[in-house]
Amino acid sequence: MSRTKLLALAAVPALALGLASPALAVNMTDPNPVASSPVEPIAAGQTKIVVVTCPAGTSALSGGWNVSSATIDVTGNRAMSSTQWQIQFQNESQQPGNVQAFARCAA
């Protein structure tokens, strides 16, 4: 089962992204695009930091995440710079999982 959490500093409309490739995905049709990381593995009992960079000319406003298991916690969620958002994950399980980070960007 997967759960999605989204923490927003401003009202954020629903996210709709198609991730056709493992490269950074950006929905540029939205006036405030959402950038996302590829889906990344996280080993059992491990911590992983994922950084998302907003497109040129935009700033990171907020971040969100998607995890593959309720046993994967978010232990950090913050701006790294005006254009980057960082999410830190902790896998409390004995099983590996997957994580993905998002950044809401604005011009």
From TrEMBL:
Q: Does the keyword Signal belong to this entry?
A: yes
Q: Which superkingdom?
A: Bacteria
Q: Which residues form the signal peptide?
A: 1-25
Keyword terms, alphabetized? Signal
Q: Does the keyword Signal apply?
A: yes
> Know the name of this protein?
Ig-like domain-containing protein
| Species of origin | Streptomyces glomeratus
